[in-house]
Design a protein that fits this description.
Layout: H1 2-18, H2 30-47, H3 56-72, H4 75-87, H5 120-130, H6 137-151, H7 162-178, H8 182-198, H9 228-244, H10 252-268, H11 291-306, H12 312-330, H13 360-381
Helix pairs in contact: 2-13, 3-4, 3-5, 3-13, 4-5, 5-6, 5-7, 7-8, 7-9, 9-10, 9-11, 11-12, 11-13
């Protein structure tokens, strides 16, 4: 292990020299990343003491909070997510009448099958596995809802890019929990449908949904309009899925190759300042930095490096530029995370996104990226405090 660590650190020194590292693109120390995570997470939780509903925006924050707990072991973070889960009765949308369950867009309790109400199950399953006193009630609703969904004849549940982050990891987590193959069978079936309506063969990127497929929809400068946060959801979702999929799963390489192709395309369109613009191929469409997409991409890249799927020689410079943006521009002095595009579904010309633009899901994305950065630098430089 010691010789491996020395080898890795030596390789990293060579890498930085070859990349002409600037002072702003340095590798952070483990304690620095840990302190930053705690500061950001404490700020969010202290300024949001009251728990909200189990809809996607709150639930996306909790996916980041759980990852921070996993690397820091700070119990108040675990307790915060548990309090949120209990507040929501371990449910998403709360209708108990399957005859009225829907999966088109909707924020009411009858939209039980809509993925934005299912992402909460990720955190409930994690809590079930992390707390000292797990009980079946923590995961009962997740099992009930997904079992019902998989018994239907429909395959078009994931009709928007965000849904791939919201629900794909629910399927793989439930597979890990139960060992039931049906979760993996339906995972591929639903993912195949999503690709059939949103995937761009030329770039390996995803349009937000069928409305935005080129040439039906174009950016201001007549280019393909790939929304950063939308592709951020997909890239991060693929990383989460690959973390849980067995290597001998029939379609493992489909997910792996899609992830790797996205990584290469995203690397090539990063802005020099480290962020990705909201419309990624047309920076003039909605100029300026955007944090949520950038943070999800950073998480995805770091996950790939940490799991030896992406070559650090090729992708670490991309990560360091993004990390510099996240920690020197997006992160504010009070611990808030700015430059997050507000809730929406596309890059909007003229929309103001500034240092005061913060959100639950943007903070969650930042925490995901930080948790993976901590794993990386811990492996290279330090020990857990």
């Amino acid at each position: 292990m010691r010789s491996l660590l020395i080898c890795l650190m030596g390789s990293f020194v060579v890498l930085l020299s070859s990349c002409h590292e600037s002072k702003n693109d340095r590798l952070p120390k483990p304690q620095e990343v840990k302190s930053l995570m705690i500061t950001v997470n404490d700020h969010w939780q202290q300024t949001h003491p009251n728990h909200g509903r189990a809809f996607w925006d709150n639930a996306a924050y909790h996916t980041g909070n759980i990852e921070v707990y996993k690397v820091t072991g700070i119990k108040r973070f675990l307790d915060y997510s548990r309090g949120w889960a209990e507040y929501n009765q371990w449910m998403g949308a709360k209708s108990n009448n399957p005859a009225e369950w829907k999966y088109n867009y909707g924020e009411t309790d009858d939209h039980v099958l809509f993925g934005d109400w299912q992402i909460c199950f990720q955190t409930y399953i994690d809590l079930f596995q992390l707390v000292d006193d797990p009980s079946e009630k923590m995961i009962a609703r997740a099992k009930e809802v997904m079992a019902y969904q998989m018994r239907t004849d429909s395959s078009d549940y994931w009709w928007w890019a965000d849904g791939l982050y919201m629900v794909m990891p629910v399927m793989t987590k439930l597979y890990q929990l139960t060992g039931e193959e049906k979760y993996l069978e339906k995972l591929y079936e639903y993912y195949s449908y999503a690709k059939s309506i949103m995937y761009d063969d030329e770039t390996g990127l995803f349009f937000r949904d069928a409305k935005y497929v080129y040439p039906k929809h174009k950016s201001l400068n007549k280019k393909k309009d790939f929304w950063a946060r939308g592709d951020g959801w997909v890239f991060a979702g693929l990383a989460k899925v690959l973390s849980d999929l067995p290597k001998d799963y029939t379609y493992y390489n489909v997910f792996l190759e899609d992830y790797k192709r996205m990584a290469q395309s995203l690397k090539n369109i990063q802005q020099e300042e480290g962020y990705w613009t909201r419309s990624m191929l047309d920076p003039d469409h909605a100029p300026g930095p955007e944090t949520s997409g950038t943070a999800f991409f950073t998480y995805g890249f770091l996950w790939g490096i940490n799991n030896r799927i992406l070559d650090q020689k090729d992708f670490l410079p991309t990560v360091l530029k993004a990390w510099n943006y996240l920690t020197t521009v997006a992160l504010q002095k009070d611990g808030s995370v700015g430059y997050v595009q507000p809730i929406g579904e596309r890059a909007i010309p003229g929309q103001v996104v500034d240092r005061n633009s913060t959100s639950n899901f943007g903070t969650g994305a930042f925490l995901l990226a930080a948790s993976e950065m901590y794993k990386y630098v811990f492996q290279l430089q330090g020990t857990i405090d």
